[in-house]
């Protein structure tokens, strides 16, 4: 059975029109809804929203299918001048957004692929004992101060301590190896 060529052209034209109608700015809401459905944290969704709505404002009126690697690279280069690490975080959010767009048939490729990622460096400065003592003595006997002291004593970041479970805290001993094993999978040290 021979298929009419005109029908294929009609479907191809409609598909191209649908791709052109998917504008970056109008697709952000659907992506954020998907993050909520996936039970991502409110903080994560808020960061994604901020990057997509503010950092990539220049892309809002462009059809997703029309955004190319050069356009994305230009936006990322502008961000890199202000803050290279923040540009890397924005790049990751934008890449995830385009992967979601591909999965939902809004575009065909991810223009973030193969764009330059800025080099990140570990923090080099640490508090010297005199500074650490000054901070410790300035802390009061309230909840905030107790949390700050806990973070200082365990050399952990706020989010790492927040993920601790009560059972770990109750059964935690002063054994250095045990303490290392508890934090090994999530530690930044």
Structure description:
The protein is mostly helical and 189 residues long. The protein has two domains: 5-103, Orthogonal Bundle (DNA polymerase, domain 1), CATH 1.10.150.130; 129-183, no CATH class. Helices cover 63% and strands 0% of the residues. The protein contains ten helices and no strands. Helix 2 (24-37) packs antiparallel against helix 3 and helix 4 runs antiparallel to helix 5. The longest helix has 20 residues, at 84-103. The chain is elongated. It starts with a helix and ends in a 6-residue tail after the last helix. The mean pLDDT is 82.
Task: Please render the helix and strand layout as text.
Blueprint: H1 5-21, H2 24-37, H3 42-55, H4 69-82, H5 84-103, H6 129-138, H7 143-154, H8 158-162, H9 166-171, H10 176-183
Helix pairs in contact: 2-3, 4-5
Feature tags:
10 helices, mainly alpha, 189 residues, DNA polymerase, domain 1, elongated
In the CATH scheme, the class of the largest domain would be: Mainly Alpha
Count of alpha and pi helical runs:
10
CATH-assigned fold name of the largest domain:
DNA polymerase, domain 1
What is the first-to-last residue Cα distance?
A: 67 Å
Average pLDDT figure: 82
Low-pLDDT regions: none
């Amino acid at each position: 059975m021979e298929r009419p060529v005109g029908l294929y052209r009609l479907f191809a034209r409609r598909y191209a029109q649908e791709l052109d109608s998917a504008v970056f700015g109008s697709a952000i809401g659907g992506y954020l809804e998907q993050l909520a459905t996936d039970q991502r944290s409110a903080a994560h969704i808020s960061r994604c929203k901020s990057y997509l709505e503010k950092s990539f404002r220049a892309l809002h009126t462009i059809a997703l299918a029309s955004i190319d690697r050069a356009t994305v690279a230009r936006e990322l280069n502008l961000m890199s001048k202000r803050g290279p690490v923040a540009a890397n975080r924005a790049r990751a959010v934008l890449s995830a957004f385009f992967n979601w767009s591909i999965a939902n048939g809004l575009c065909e490729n991810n223009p973030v692929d193969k764009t330059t990622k800025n080099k990140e460096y570990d923090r080099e400065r640490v508090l010297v004992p005199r500074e650490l003592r000054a901070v410790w003595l300035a802390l009061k006997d309230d909840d905030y101060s107790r949390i700050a002291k806990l973070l200082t004593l365990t050399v952990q970041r706020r989010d790492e301590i927040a993920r601790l479970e009560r059972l770990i805290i109750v059964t935690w001993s002063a054994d250095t190896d045990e303490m290392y094993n508890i934090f090994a999978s999530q530690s930044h040290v």
